[in-house]
Amino acid sequence: MEPIIKVENLSKKYVLRHQAKEQYVALRDVITNTAKSLVTSKTGGQATREEFWALKDISFEINKGERIGIIGRNGAGKSTLLKIFSRITEPTEGRITIDGRVSSLLEVGTGFHPELTGRENVFLNGSILGMGKREIEAKFDEIVAFAEVEKFLDTPVKRYSSGMYVRLAFAVAAHLEPDILIVDEVLAVGDAAFQKKCLGKMEDVSKSSGRTIIFVSHNMSAIRSTCNKAIFLEKGKIECHDDIDTVISHYYNIAKATPTNGVQISSTPLASSGEWEVNSDIEVEIKWDKYKYEPGWQCDIACYTIDGVKIFALESHKFHEFRSDDKECNGVKFIVRNVGFPNTELRLDVGIKKSINESYCNLIENCLRIFPSGNNLPAYLRHDVITIPPAQCKAITL
Amino acid sequence: MSNRIVIEPGAKSKHYWIDIWNYRGLFYFLAWRDVLVRYKQTAIGIAWSVIKPLFTILVMWFIGWLFKSQVPDGVPRVLLVSAATLPWQFFSGAFTDISNSLVGNSNLLSKVYFPRLIVPLSTMIVALIDFLISFALLLIIMCLLHFMPDWRILLLPLFLLLAIIITIGTGLFIAALNVKYRDFRIVVPFIVQLGLYASPVAFSSDYIYTSTRIPEFLKFIYSLNPMVGVIDGFRWCIIGNGSTIYFPGFILSVIISFFFLIMGIWYFRKTEHSFADVI
Fold this sequence. Notes:
- By secondary structure, chain A is α+β, with helices and mostly antiparallel strands.
- Chain A has helices spanning 27-39, 78-85, 118-128, 133-147, 162-174, 192-209, 220-226, 244-254; strands at 5-17, 49-62, 67-72, 93-99, 102-105, 180-183, 212-216, 229-234, 237-243, 263-269, 281-288, 298-305, 310-315, 331-337, 346-353, 362-370, 391-396.
- Chain B has 13 helices and one strand.
- In chain B, helix 2 (24-38) packs across helix 6.
- Chain B is mainly α.
């Protein structure tokens, strides 16, 4: 199958100027710097310039109808990649070949003018996103109904609530019909119900019309429900390009792991089967070198699915029997009952603080993987509700 | 496939101008936005487009009368002044708007792709509409004064075209420079202010060219200002016999105008691919 997008050895370089503090260069600086470099040697001026490769030698292919999620930490090059795709900025090296009409949505409501009415902005925004006048007219009613702003069509958008504004803006974008849709983290705004509606709309179009979607988000569950493949960018390079579950799991292994700062964390299921079965306990042991923390320390744990859904959180100070005033104590043990947790991989965050009212002095994210067993899962349990499992917590000495 | 896009460093689009033509819808909408937004939340709205040129004409008229500048026989002084005020106001308005257009639309430039030339070009529409309104004003004044222009007024669109060429050329150049060097935000009002005195708005070119007091090289420098050609042309079209065009100067104006146009477009195209990174 011929790929619809082909990226070959793509690189993008930015030059950082450490000297210039202003965002833009003043002509004065250019003149004085040129004059300076004429007097001094030519290498003098280059010390302040540093090259930064936002993307380095990236190659991949996307087939028609694929829905690709792009994930990575801040600064990994996701936005730069999208900007090159949308032809806003040029690559430094390499090339991209795209077969089809591209619409990119790097921001909701690009070009919305606060003084114009909702109706006028729909037309303006639509044409900025690449729709023709007739196309907008044909879809106008649908857009307005989707955004649920019928009553305020002739009100300037500066008087809209931010929710209405975002709904209208996204409604226009959701009705684009390109071959390839590029979406940046635009769903981070708007309320949860509308986000869901937008995701639903995007899924509908892509699945029914075979549209290719490139989607950047930090919201793993949004990525998982929208995309079937993913690319994990790390420091401007492709760390992993595979189907969605593999990539997200890989992402959590690498991107979210933080250094433990001399704290050891381990877990042992207490059931005889060696698994964390329903209605059995797991022991989570957290320990450190003696005297690392003064008496009075507190230790909290939180448990998430790899989509970032919180399953439970336990704070040591909530346990009456917990005492950390013994100088000899150098660890803590949590014993947690499985009340029927979802049968997927869970991740653990550990936070240690010097006293109840302080913030964490050592926050270790994603330090442990635990797998609740799926056997004997009660049918009545709902996994979208946070349950507080029966648990114990005590300070330990080793 | 028909709509294959290749993104490469330094890829010059082979159909640059066709691309712009394909985006004409956006051109209309951006111009339409600028027109709509212009007088939003003002009490008298579009009336400002009449009041501004009217008062400028009145002030120029008063200054001319005060200093007893020469007026050809049979020509009302107010027409002499209006014929110059119209193109000058068009140039100063459009030039200022175009120069700031890229920076003013930076949110668009950094978020969406379209041929960048659309932004400065669509900005000019507002100034063109203002020009048409003031031109209607001029026609009313002519009627009130029972002044009948001759056939030459039919050539007016040619001189308007020359004014547009000058505006686009200089405007594009400054707009592209303004993206990187915001100094031009300060320079532009200054150019416009000085230009008013260097152009024959309050006086007439005849006075400059026939004066024996002014040395030849100053006359030459004066004729380098392309707006001199435009304003003289407007006077020639509107007033008719009372005004003459100094032809060598006029030809020079035309050459310089096209030089600016080519320069402006060349520099704009050279820098436009880095606008989003720099702005």
